[in-house]
Amino acid sequence: MRSQRSQVVVVGAGPSGLLLSHLLAARGVDSVVLEARSQAYVGARVRAGILEHSTVEVLREAGLDGRLRAEGAEHRGIHLHWPGERHHLDFVDLVGRSVWAYGQTEVQKDLVAATTARGQEVHYEVTDVALHDLATDSPHVTFTDATGLARRIDTDAVVGCDGAFGPSRAAVPDGVRTTWERTYPFSWLGIMADVAPSTDELIYAWHPDGFAMHSLRSPTVSRFYLQVPAGTDVTTWSDDRIWDALALRLGHGQDGWELTPGPITDRSVLPMRSFVQTPMRHGRLFLVGDAAHTVPPTGAKGLNLAVADVGLLAPALVALLRDGDPGPAGSYSDRALRRVWRCTHFSWWMTSMLHTGEDPFDHQLQLSQLRWVTSSGAAAAGLAENYAGLPLEL
Ligand code: RFL
Ligand code: PHB
Asked: Is 90 exceeded by the pLDDT of residue 336?
C-alpha cells in the first residue's frame, strides 16, 4: 500500500469538494480530493441552474466569477403563474438582491479549470474509499486508485463532499447520527432543449395537472420541468406529450404569451425528497452539501446550500489546521444547520405551494397562498429573501 500525508482529505469532486479544496489552497492548507467517477462524467452532469446572492459572493471571493459574470444572466426575480394569472416578483425591489442563471455544469467546469491550473491533487475513478479513526485527531483514508493501486492518506481532517450516496454520511456511527426525512408522491421530469428561452426570467407554474417550470441556460438553450408521479418511466413521455403538457401548464396563448418548442437533448426523472442528517461533524469528519442534506429543487437551494456549507467550513478548517483555533470548526455543524433547516423549510414550502394532487381543497389553499405572495409586499419579500438567499451566518 502506498502511503502519503495531507492536511485534509476531501471525498467527492462535485461542486462542494472542488470549491473547498480551492479555498483551502488559497489559504495555505493542502488537500487531496478523491472522486469515484471520471472527470468527464462529473463535468457533464445536468443539475441546478440558479445561483443565489451569497453563492455568487463566495465565488467572487474565490476569484471564480469571471465567466459567470460574462456568460451568466443576472435575474431580478421570477414569474409565478397559474391559469389566467402571471405575476413577476422583483427580488431587487423587494430585498435588494438578485440571482444568477448559470448552470451547475458551468460552475463545475470553472472549478475543474481552477483545480487544474493550481495543480491540485484530484484522484478520479477511485474505488473502495473507506474512512478510519474519525473520532481521533489522526484519521486516515484508504482507497484504490484508477490504476488499481491500494493507497492510504494520513490526515488531520476528512471532509465528506460525496453527495447522498457516498460513504461519509454512513461513517457517522448509528448512535451519534439522527436522520430527518420527508418524501413526496411526485418527481420532476426535466428536459434540456436547443431552443431560445420563451421567457426572460424563470416561470414557476401551478396547474391542476401538476407543477411546471421554464428555466434557461443560455440564449439558445432552455431547461424545463414537469411534475410527474413518483416512479414515472421517462420513456412514457414522448416529445409531443412533453411540449403539450408544458404549453398547457405554462399558459401558452394566455395574454399573447407563446412557448416555442425545440429539439430535446437530455431528459431524466428526478425523485424529490427532503433529508437532513445531524450533526454535520463527527470528530475529525465534516459533512458538506448533499452528503448531509437533500432538498427538493423547487426552491433552487441544493447547490447554493452546498456552497454555503463550504463558505462556513473553509475558514473553520483554516483556523483549526493553520492557526490552531478549534472554535469555528467546533461550531460548524450548529451554524450550518441553522441555514440548512431554513432552506429545508423554504424548499418544502415552495414545493407544497406549487405541486398539485387530487384534493380540490388543497388547490384552493394553494391558489390563496399564490394570490397572497403576489399581492402582499410582506409575503412577497419573505419569498424573495429566502429565494435570493440569506446571509451565510443566520
Ligand atoms: P454532488 O454534486 O452530488 O457531488 C458528490 C460527488 O461525490 C462523488 N462520490 C464519491 N466520490 C468518492 N468515493 C465515493 N464512494 C463517492 N460517492 C460519491 C460523486 O460522484 C460526486 O461527484 O454533491 P455536492 O458537491 O454536495 O453538490 C450538491 C449539488 O450537486 C446538489 O445539491 C444539486 O445538484 C441538487 N440538484 C439540484 N439542485 C437545484 O438547486 N436545482 C436542480 O435543478 C437540481 N437538479 C440536483 C438536480 C441533484 C441531482 N442528483 C444529486 C441526483 C438533479 C440531480 C439529478
Ligand atoms: C434549473 O434551472 O435547473 C432550476 C432552476 C430553478 C429551480 C430548479 C432548477 O428551482
From this structure: yes
